[in-house]
Write a structure and sequence with these properties.
- The protein is mainly α.
- It has one domain: Tetratricopeptide repeat domain (Serine Threonine Protein Phosphatase 5, Tetratricopeptide repeat).
- Helix content is 67%, strand content 2%.
- It contains nine helices and two strands.
- It has a two-stranded antiparallel ribbon.
- A hairpin with a 5-residue loop joins strand 1 and strand 2.
- The longest helix has 18 residues.
């Protein structure tokens, strides 16, 4: 994905701050900086992605849905965009309270989601946190989907995704010597 922040543009001043926020793991500062970036450049897919992942980590799923929708709208087609589309489908089903629906497309989306966020060797093992359901069973109910999101959030997976994206953006934007 092409960086939206260049070291010599008006957004370049945010890159150093974003890098420091990511290195310190400061989610609030990262969120603030991602917001500033999208205010200046609404086509910055990286910032929308960062906001979406931080919102997922905070359990703000409606906001995450909006941010990830913006990301998908402006992003180049890559693995992150594909994963975001799967996550959007998962969130839509979860937020709507949609119950058990089985069709080939949903099964494919669920499988993609599970493979992205869970160890393939443990998908069919019961989890105490899921009321002894397997991950594959939990994905079929609204309560189960919320429980799966809680497990992912406990491991800080979404925060790490935002942090990695922020560092990648900042590293691409900031010259090696750190001067602008």
């Amino acid at each position: 994905m092409a960086p939206c922040i260049q070291s010599d543009d008006k957004l370049g001043g945010l890159a150093h701050k974003l890098r420091n926020a990511c290195l310190s793991g400061d989610s609030r500062q990262m969120e603030n900086l991602f917001r500033q970036i999208v205010e200046l450049d609404e086509n910055c897919a990286d910032a929308w992605y960062g906001l979406g992942m931080l919102s997922m980590q905070d359990g703000q799923f409606e906001d995450a849905y909006d941010y990830l929708s913006e990301f998908v709208a402006v992003a180049e087609l890559d693995r992150d965009a594909e994963d975001a589309e799967v996550l959007l489908c998962f969130l839509e089903r979860t937020l709507s309270g949609e119950g058990e629906i089985h069709n080939d497309l949903l099964e494919e989306v669920d499988e993609h989601f599970l493979m992205r966020y869970f160890d393939a060797d443990k998908i069919d093992e019961p989890y105490a946190e899921l009321g002894r359901l397997t991950v594959r069973e939990a994905v079929n109910t609204t309560v189960g989907r919320y429980a799966l999101l809680a497990l992912i959030r406990e491991d800080n997976v979404f925060k790490q995704a935002a942090l990695d994206r922020g560092l990648a953006v900042a590293t691409q934007a900031v010259p090696v010597n750190g001067t602008h």
